[in-house]
Protein backbone atom coordinates (compact mmCIF):
# COMPACT_ATOMS: atom_id res chain seq x y z
CA UNK A 1 0.00 0.00 0.00
CA UNK A 2 1.26 3.50 -0.69
CA UNK A 3 3.10 4.90 2.27
CA UNK A 4 3.42 1.53 3.94
CA UNK A 5 6.87 0.75 5.30
CA UNK A 6 8.43 -2.05 3.29
CA UNK A 7 7.81 -5.34 5.07
CA UNK A 8 10.99 -6.60 3.50
CA UNK A 9 13.28 -3.92 4.92
CA UNK A 10 14.69 -6.34 7.44
CA UNK A 11 15.52 -8.80 4.67
CA UNK A 12 17.35 -6.12 2.75
CA UNK A 13 19.36 -5.39 5.85
CA UNK A 14 20.64 -8.95 5.82
CA UNK A 15 22.67 -8.12 2.75
CA UNK A 16 24.60 -5.57 4.79
CA UNK A 17 27.47 -6.44 7.07
CA UNK A 18 25.18 -6.21 10.10
CA UNK A 19 22.74 -9.07 9.68
CA UNK A 20 20.16 -8.99 12.51
CA UNK A 21 19.94 -11.86 14.95
CA UNK A 22 17.02 -13.88 13.67
CA UNK A 23 15.30 -17.19 14.14
CA UNK A 24 14.56 -17.27 10.45
CA UNK A 25 15.35 -19.71 7.71
CA UNK A 26 19.02 -20.58 7.12
CA UNK A 27 18.81 -23.14 4.34
CA UNK A 28 21.80 -21.54 2.72
CA UNK A 29 24.00 -22.77 5.57
CA UNK A 30 22.78 -25.92 7.24
CA UNK A 31 19.70 -27.21 5.49
CA UNK A 32 20.70 -27.34 1.89
CA UNK A 33 21.20 -30.17 -0.55
CA UNK A 34 23.37 -30.09 -3.67
CA UNK A 35 23.63 -26.77 -5.53
CA UNK A 36 20.75 -26.30 -7.97
CA UNK A 37 20.24 -23.49 -10.44
CA UNK A 38 16.81 -22.19 -11.40
CA UNK A 39 16.31 -22.91 -15.10
CA UNK A 40 12.62 -22.24 -15.65
CA UNK A 41 9.71 -20.52 -13.93
CA UNK A 42 6.21 -20.99 -15.26
CA UNK A 43 3.11 -19.25 -13.88
CA UNK A 44 0.04 -21.39 -14.52
CA UNK A 45 -3.45 -19.92 -14.11
CA UNK A 46 -6.10 -22.42 -13.02
CA UNK A 47 -9.80 -22.15 -12.27
CA UNK A 48 -10.91 -24.86 -9.86
CA UNK A 49 -14.54 -25.80 -9.15
CA UNK A 50 -15.84 -25.33 -5.60
CA UNK A 51 -18.06 -27.87 -3.86
CA UNK A 52 -20.36 -24.94 -3.12
CA UNK A 53 -19.95 -21.16 -3.26
CA UNK A 54 -18.50 -19.31 -0.26
CA UNK A 55 -20.43 -16.09 0.33
CA UNK A 56 -18.52 -13.27 2.02
CA UNK A 57 -19.03 -9.55 2.37
CA UNK A 58 -17.77 -8.03 -0.87
CA UNK A 59 -16.90 -11.34 -2.48
CA UNK A 60 -18.55 -14.55 -3.65
CA UNK A 61 -16.15 -17.37 -4.49
CA UNK A 62 -17.93 -19.65 -6.94
CA UNK A 63 -14.74 -20.90 -8.61
CA UNK A 64 -11.22 -20.73 -7.24
CA UNK A 65 -9.08 -18.71 -9.64
CA UNK A 66 -5.55 -19.44 -8.49
CA UNK A 67 -2.07 -19.13 -9.93
CA UNK A 68 0.29 -22.07 -9.62
CA UNK A 69 4.02 -21.64 -10.12
CA UNK A 70 6.24 -24.42 -11.44
CA UNK A 71 9.98 -23.90 -10.94
CA UNK A 72 12.48 -26.26 -12.53
CA UNK A 73 16.18 -26.55 -11.74
CA UNK A 74 19.24 -27.94 -13.52
CA UNK A 75 19.12 -30.95 -11.16
CA UNK A 76 15.75 -31.95 -12.60
CA UNK A 77 13.96 -31.20 -9.33
CA UNK A 78 10.66 -29.33 -9.69
CA UNK A 79 9.04 -27.14 -7.05
CA UNK A 80 5.43 -25.96 -6.91
CA UNK A 81 3.86 -22.86 -5.39
CA UNK A 82 0.44 -21.26 -5.41
CA UNK A 83 -1.38 -18.02 -4.69
CA UNK A 84 -5.10 -17.32 -4.89
CA UNK A 85 -6.39 -14.24 -6.63
CA UNK A 86 -7.81 -11.98 -3.93
CA UNK A 87 -8.92 -8.62 -5.37
CA UNK A 88 -10.43 -7.33 -2.12
CA UNK A 89 -7.67 -8.65 0.15
CA UNK A 90 -4.36 -8.27 -1.70
CA UNK A 91 -5.52 -6.52 -4.87
CA UNK A 92 -4.43 -9.51 -6.94
CA UNK A 93 -6.39 -10.76 -9.92
CA UNK A 94 -5.40 -13.93 -11.73
CA UNK A 95 -4.09 -11.79 -14.58
CA UNK A 96 -2.02 -9.55 -12.28
CA UNK A 97 -0.51 -12.55 -10.48
CA UNK A 98 0.62 -14.08 -13.76
CA UNK A 99 1.93 -10.73 -15.01
CA UNK A 100 3.90 -10.24 -11.78
CA UNK A 101 5.60 -13.62 -12.11
CA UNK A 102 6.50 -12.83 -15.72
CA UNK A 103 7.98 -9.55 -14.49
CA UNK A 104 9.89 -11.17 -11.60
CA UNK A 105 11.20 -14.13 -13.58
CA UNK A 106 14.37 -12.44 -14.96
CA UNK A 107 15.47 -11.67 -11.38
CA UNK A 108 15.36 -15.36 -10.45
CA UNK A 109 16.45 -17.37 -13.51
CA UNK A 110 19.99 -18.65 -13.02
CA UNK A 111 19.98 -18.10 -9.25
CA UNK A 112 20.79 -20.72 -6.60
CA UNK A 113 17.33 -22.16 -5.85
CA UNK A 114 18.15 -22.75 -2.17
CA UNK A 115 19.03 -19.10 -1.55
CA UNK A 116 15.49 -18.04 -0.75
CA UNK A 117 16.44 -14.92 1.18
CA UNK A 118 18.53 -13.81 -1.80
CA UNK A 119 15.57 -14.52 -4.08
CA UNK A 120 13.40 -12.18 -1.98
CA UNK A 121 16.02 -9.44 -2.14
CA UNK A 122 16.18 -9.86 -5.92
CA UNK A 123 12.37 -9.86 -6.24
CA UNK A 124 11.94 -6.81 -4.00
CA UNK A 125 14.59 -4.99 -5.99
CA UNK A 126 12.64 -5.58 -9.18
CA UNK A 127 9.06 -5.10 -7.97
CA UNK A 128 7.36 -3.44 -4.98
CA UNK A 129 4.60 -5.28 -3.11
CA UNK A 130 2.85 -8.05 -5.05
CA UNK A 131 2.99 -10.39 -2.08
CA UNK A 132 0.69 -12.92 -3.72
CA UNK A 133 3.03 -13.57 -6.65
CA UNK A 134 6.08 -13.51 -4.36
CA UNK A 135 4.38 -15.97 -2.00
CA UNK A 136 3.75 -18.43 -4.83
CA UNK A 137 7.41 -18.22 -5.89
CA UNK A 138 8.59 -18.51 -2.27
CA UNK A 139 6.48 -21.63 -1.69
CA UNK A 140 7.91 -23.26 -4.84
CA UNK A 141 11.47 -22.44 -3.70
CA UNK A 142 10.80 -23.91 -0.25
CA UNK A 143 9.38 -27.02 -1.93
CA UNK A 144 12.62 -27.30 -3.92
CA UNK A 145 14.85 -26.58 -0.92
CA UNK A 146 13.10 -29.24 1.13
CA UNK A 147 13.18 -31.84 -1.64
CA UNK A 148 16.87 -31.15 -2.24
CA UNK A 149 17.80 -31.32 1.45
CA UNK A 150 15.55 -34.34 2.10
CA UNK A 151 13.61 -32.42 4.75
CA UNK A 152 10.01 -31.31 5.12
CA UNK A 153 9.47 -27.57 4.72
CA UNK A 154 8.61 -27.23 8.41
CA UNK A 155 12.10 -28.45 9.31
CA UNK A 156 13.52 -25.54 7.28
CA UNK A 157 11.35 -23.09 9.21
CA UNK A 158 12.10 -24.10 12.79
CA UNK A 159 11.50 -26.72 15.44
CA UNK A 160 8.35 -28.77 15.26
CA UNK A 161 5.84 -27.60 17.89
CA UNK A 162 2.95 -29.96 17.18
CA UNK A 163 1.98 -32.91 15.00
CA UNK A 164 -1.81 -32.47 14.94
CA UNK A 165 -3.65 -29.23 14.32
CA UNK A 166 -7.33 -28.26 14.68
CA UNK A 167 -8.93 -27.03 11.48
CA UNK A 168 -11.16 -23.98 11.45
CA UNK A 169 -14.28 -25.10 9.57
CA UNK A 170 -15.74 -22.30 7.46
CA UNK A 171 -19.53 -21.97 7.63
CA UNK A 172 -20.01 -19.66 4.69
CA UNK A 173 -23.20 -20.41 2.78
CA UNK A 174 -24.80 -17.20 4.03
CA UNK A 175 -28.27 -18.61 4.74
CA UNK A 176 -29.71 -19.53 8.13
CA UNK A 177 -30.88 -23.11 7.51
CA UNK A 178 -27.99 -24.04 5.22
CA UNK A 179 -25.39 -22.77 7.67
CA UNK A 180 -27.01 -24.61 10.59
CA UNK A 181 -26.94 -27.81 8.56
CA UNK A 182 -23.33 -27.22 7.52
CA UNK A 183 -22.24 -26.55 11.12
CA UNK A 184 -23.96 -29.75 12.33
CA UNK A 185 -22.28 -31.74 9.55
CA UNK A 186 -18.86 -30.37 10.47
CA UNK A 187 -19.47 -31.12 14.16
CA UNK A 188 -20.36 -34.71 13.25
CA UNK A 189 -17.11 -34.91 11.26
CA UNK A 190 -15.11 -33.91 14.35
CA UNK A 191 -14.47 -30.21 13.83
CA UNK A 192 -13.81 -28.31 17.07
CA UNK A 193 -13.26 -24.84 15.55
CA UNK A 194 -15.56 -22.82 13.27
CA UNK A 195 -15.79 -19.56 11.37
CA UNK A 196 -19.18 -18.12 10.44
CA UNK A 197 -19.24 -15.62 7.58
CA UNK A 198 -21.22 -12.51 8.52
CA UNK A 199 -21.42 -8.91 7.30
CA UNK A 200 -23.63 -10.15 4.47
CA UNK A 201 -27.07 -9.37 5.97
CA UNK A 202 -28.33 -6.92 8.57
CA UNK A 203 -26.43 -7.07 11.87
CA UNK A 204 -29.62 -8.37 13.52
CA UNK A 205 -30.08 -11.22 11.03
CA UNK A 206 -26.38 -12.10 11.06
CA UNK A 207 -26.50 -12.11 14.88
CA UNK A 208 -29.57 -14.37 14.91
CA UNK A 209 -27.77 -16.82 12.58
CA UNK A 210 -24.63 -16.64 14.75
CA UNK A 211 -26.56 -17.27 17.96
CA UNK A 212 -28.38 -20.26 16.43
CA UNK A 213 -25.11 -21.81 15.20
CA UNK A 214 -23.40 -21.26 18.56
CA UNK A 215 -26.36 -22.87 20.36
CA UNK A 216 -26.35 -25.83 17.97
CA UNK A 217 -22.61 -26.40 18.33
CA UNK A 218 -22.72 -26.14 22.11
CA UNK A 219 -19.92 -25.48 24.60
CA UNK A 220 -16.31 -26.56 24.25
CA UNK A 221 -15.91 -25.34 20.66
CA UNK A 222 -13.89 -22.44 19.28
CA UNK A 223 -16.40 -20.34 17.35
CA UNK A 224 -15.60 -17.22 15.37
CA UNK A 225 -17.39 -14.86 13.01
CA UNK A 226 -15.81 -12.99 10.10
CA UNK A 227 -17.38 -9.87 8.59
CA UNK A 228 -14.64 -9.41 5.96
CA UNK A 229 -14.90 -5.58 6.45
CA UNK A 230 -18.61 -5.77 5.68
CA UNK A 231 -19.99 -3.73 8.58
CA UNK A 232 -19.94 -0.04 9.38
CA UNK A 233 -18.79 0.79 12.90
CA UNK A 234 -22.37 1.17 14.12
CA UNK A 235 -23.43 -2.08 12.48
CA UNK A 236 -20.48 -3.91 14.03
CA UNK A 237 -21.35 -2.50 17.45
CA UNK A 238 -24.97 -3.63 17.01
CA UNK A 239 -23.74 -7.10 16.01
CA UNK A 240 -21.39 -7.57 18.99
CA UNK A 241 -24.09 -6.34 21.39
CA UNK A 242 -26.50 -8.90 19.93
CA UNK A 243 -24.09 -11.87 20.13
CA UNK A 244 -22.54 -11.06 23.53
CA UNK A 245 -22.62 -14.14 25.73
CA UNK A 246 -23.74 -16.59 23.04
CA UNK A 247 -20.44 -18.43 22.91
CA UNK A 248 -18.67 -16.52 20.12
CA UNK A 249 -14.94 -16.53 20.89
CA UNK A 250 -13.64 -14.03 18.36
CA UNK A 251 -14.91 -11.68 15.65
CA UNK A 252 -12.70 -11.04 12.66
CA UNK A 253 -12.32 -7.87 10.61
CA UNK A 254 -15.64 -6.23 11.51
CA UNK A 255 -14.87 -3.03 9.59
CA UNK A 256 -12.55 -1.61 6.92
CA UNK A 257 -8.97 -2.87 7.10
CA UNK A 258 -7.40 0.57 7.56
CA UNK A 259 -9.83 1.88 10.19
CA UNK A 260 -7.89 1.00 13.34
CA UNK A 261 -9.79 3.60 15.36
CA UNK A 262 -13.05 1.79 14.62
CA UNK A 263 -11.45 -1.59 15.31
CA UNK A 264 -10.25 -0.32 18.70
CA UNK A 265 -13.67 1.18 19.47
CA UNK A 266 -15.42 -2.13 18.75
CA UNK A 267 -12.78 -4.06 20.72
CA UNK A 268 -13.37 -1.81 23.73
CA UNK A 269 -17.14 -2.29 23.51
CA UNK A 270 -17.24 -6.08 23.80
CA UNK A 271 -15.78 -8.99 25.71
CA UNK A 272 -15.52 -10.90 22.43
CA UNK A 273 -11.95 -10.84 21.12
CA UNK A 274 -11.57 -8.82 17.92
CA UNK A 275 -9.34 -10.20 15.17
CA UNK A 276 -7.71 -8.61 12.12
CA UNK A 277 -7.28 -10.24 8.72
CA UNK A 278 -7.54 -7.87 5.74
CA UNK A 279 -5.69 -5.27 7.87
CA UNK A 280 -2.57 -7.44 8.23
CA UNK A 281 -0.03 -7.38 5.39
CA UNK A 282 3.21 -7.03 7.33
CA UNK A 283 4.76 -7.38 10.77
CA UNK A 284 4.36 -3.60 11.18
CA UNK A 285 0.61 -4.03 10.72
CA UNK A 286 0.58 -6.62 13.52
CA UNK A 287 2.46 -4.28 15.84
CA UNK A 288 0.12 -1.36 15.04
CA UNK A 289 -2.98 -3.42 15.80
CA UNK A 290 -1.44 -4.53 19.11
CA UNK A 291 -0.36 -1.00 20.06
CA UNK A 292 -3.78 0.49 19.25
CA UNK A 293 -5.56 -2.40 21.01
CA UNK A 294 -7.41 -2.86 17.74
CA UNK A 295 -7.12 -6.66 17.77
CA UNK A 296 -6.27 -9.47 20.16
CA UNK A 297 -5.39 -11.85 17.36
CA UNK A 298 -4.77 -12.07 13.63
CA UNK A 299 -5.39 -14.24 10.64
CA UNK A 300 -2.13 -14.75 8.76
CA UNK A 301 -1.91 -15.77 5.11
CA UNK A 302 1.12 -16.35 2.88
CA UNK A 303 -0.41 -14.23 0.09
CA UNK A 304 -0.63 -11.21 2.40
CA UNK A 305 2.84 -11.55 3.91
CA UNK A 306 4.78 -12.73 0.85
CA UNK A 307 5.68 -16.34 1.62
CA UNK A 308 6.04 -19.04 4.23
CA UNK A 309 9.07 -17.68 6.04
CA UNK A 310 7.42 -14.26 6.37
CA UNK A 311 4.31 -16.10 7.58
CA UNK A 312 6.30 -18.02 10.21
CA UNK A 313 8.09 -14.87 11.35
CA UNK A 314 4.74 -13.05 11.68
CA UNK A 315 3.45 -15.97 13.75
CA UNK A 316 6.46 -15.72 16.03
CA UNK A 317 5.96 -11.98 16.43
CA UNK A 318 2.37 -12.66 17.52
CA UNK A 319 3.75 -15.10 20.10
CA UNK A 320 6.05 -12.36 21.41
CA UNK A 321 3.13 -9.89 21.55
CA UNK A 322 0.73 -12.33 23.20
CA UNK A 323 -1.63 -12.26 20.23
CA UNK A 324 -3.70 -15.19 19.04
CA UNK A 325 -3.04 -16.63 15.59
CA UNK A 326 -5.11 -18.25 12.89
CA UNK A 327 -2.95 -19.58 10.06
CA UNK A 328 -5.09 -19.49 6.99
CA UNK A 329 -5.30 -20.08 3.27
CA UNK A 330 -7.44 -17.94 1.03
CA UNK A 331 -10.77 -19.48 0.09
CA UNK A 332 -10.27 -22.08 -2.64
CA UNK A 333 -6.50 -22.55 -2.45
CA UNK A 334 -5.46 -26.09 -3.36
CA UNK A 335 -3.39 -28.66 -1.48
CA UNK A 336 -0.20 -26.85 -2.60
CA UNK A 337 -0.84 -23.60 -0.68
CA UNK A 338 -2.58 -25.55 2.09
CA UNK A 339 0.50 -27.72 2.58
CA UNK A 340 2.61 -24.57 2.87
CA UNK A 341 0.28 -23.18 5.56
CA UNK A 342 0.33 -26.50 7.39
CA UNK A 343 4.14 -26.46 7.56
CA UNK A 344 4.05 -22.99 9.13
CA UNK A 345 1.38 -24.04 11.62
CA UNK A 346 3.66 -26.92 12.63
CA UNK A 347 6.43 -24.62 13.88
CA UNK A 348 5.00 -21.34 15.22
CA UNK A 349 4.45 -20.88 18.98
CA UNK A 350 0.66 -20.84 18.99
CA UNK A 351 -2.25 -21.46 16.66
CA UNK A 352 -4.89 -20.78 19.27
CA UNK A 353 -7.34 -19.60 16.62
CA UNK A 354 -6.83 -22.68 14.46
CA UNK A 355 -5.69 -23.55 10.98
CA UNK A 356 -7.85 -22.82 7.94
CA UNK A 357 -7.16 -25.23 5.06
CA UNK A 358 -9.41 -24.30 2.18
CA UNK A 359 -8.71 -27.18 -0.21
CA UNK A 360 -11.49 -29.05 1.55
CA UNK A 361 -13.93 -26.69 -0.17
CA UNK A 362 -12.70 -27.63 -3.66
CA UNK A 363 -14.50 -30.10 -5.90
CA UNK A 364 -11.20 -30.75 -7.74
CA UNK A 365 -7.65 -30.42 -6.46
CA UNK A 366 -4.36 -30.40 -8.39
CA UNK A 367 -2.50 -33.03 -6.40
CA UNK A 368 -2.58 -36.79 -6.86
CA UNK A 369 -4.12 -37.05 -3.39
CA UNK A 370 -5.65 -34.05 -1.64
CA UNK A 371 -3.88 -33.10 1.55
CA UNK A 372 -5.28 -35.50 4.14
CA UNK A 373 -7.51 -34.19 6.89
CA UNK A 374 -9.74 -36.13 9.24
CA UNK A 375 -11.95 -35.56 12.25
CA UNK A 376 -11.52 -31.81 11.89
CA UNK A 377 -7.75 -31.95 12.23
CA UNK A 378 -4.65 -32.13 10.03
CA UNK A 379 -1.40 -33.90 10.79
CA UNK A 380 2.04 -32.50 10.05
CA UNK A 381 3.53 -33.33 6.66
CA UNK A 382 6.88 -35.00 7.18
CA UNK A 383 7.96 -35.95 3.66
CA UNK A 384 10.66 -33.83 1.93
CA UNK A 385 9.50 -30.51 0.48
CA UNK A 386 5.85 -29.54 0.70
CA UNK A 387 4.93 -33.23 0.92
CA UNK A 388 2.25 -33.18 -1.79
CA UNK A 389 2.52 -34.60 -5.31
CA UNK A 390 1.18 -32.35 -8.02
CA UNK A 391 -0.72 -34.17 -10.76
CA UNK A 392 0.18 -32.28 -13.92
CA UNK A 393 -2.75 -33.79 -15.83
CA UNK A 394 -5.10 -32.22 -13.24
CA UNK A 395 -3.26 -28.93 -13.64
CA UNK A 396 -3.70 -29.07 -17.43
CA UNK A 397 -7.38 -29.93 -17.06
CA UNK A 398 -8.09 -26.80 -15.04
CA UNK A 399 -5.66 -24.45 -16.76
CA UNK A 400 -7.02 -21.20 -18.17
CA UNK A 401 -5.28 -18.99 -20.72
CA UNK A 402 -3.94 -15.64 -19.57
CA UNK A 403 -2.39 -13.35 -22.15
CA UNK A 404 1.10 -12.19 -21.17
CA UNK A 405 3.14 -9.39 -22.69
CA UNK A 406 6.64 -10.58 -23.48
CA UNK A 407 9.31 -8.40 -21.89
CA UNK A 408 12.13 -7.30 -24.15
CA UNK A 409 15.39 -5.52 -23.42
CA UNK A 410 16.04 -2.08 -24.98
CA UNK A 411 18.19 -3.85 -27.58
CA UNK A 412 15.20 -5.93 -28.57
CA UNK A 413 16.48 -9.28 -27.32
CA UNK A 414 14.25 -11.39 -25.13
CA UNK A 415 14.86 -10.61 -21.45
CA UNK A 416 14.43 -14.24 -20.44
MG1 LIG B 1 -10.98 -13.41 7.30
UniProtKB/TrEMBL annotation:
UniProt feature, compositional bias: Basic residues: 1-12
Region of interest: Disordered: 1-26
Cofactor(s) demanded: Mg(2+)
GO biological process: amino acid catabolic process
PROSITE patterns: MR_MLE_1 (PS00908)
Alphabetical keyword list: Magnesium, Metal-binding
Origin: domain of life: Bacteria
Domain Mandelate racemase/muconate lactonizing enzyme C-terminal: from-to ranges: 177-273
GO molecular function: catalytic activity; magnesium ion binding
Short name of any one Pfam family annotated for the protein: MR_MLE_N
InterPro entries: DgoD-like, Enolase-like_C_sf, Enolase-like_N, Enolase_C-like, Mandel_Rmase/mucon_lact_enz_CS, Mandelate_racemase_C, Mandelate_racemase_N_dom
Name of the protein this chain belongs to: Mandelate racemase/muconate lactonizing enzyme C-terminal domain-containing protein
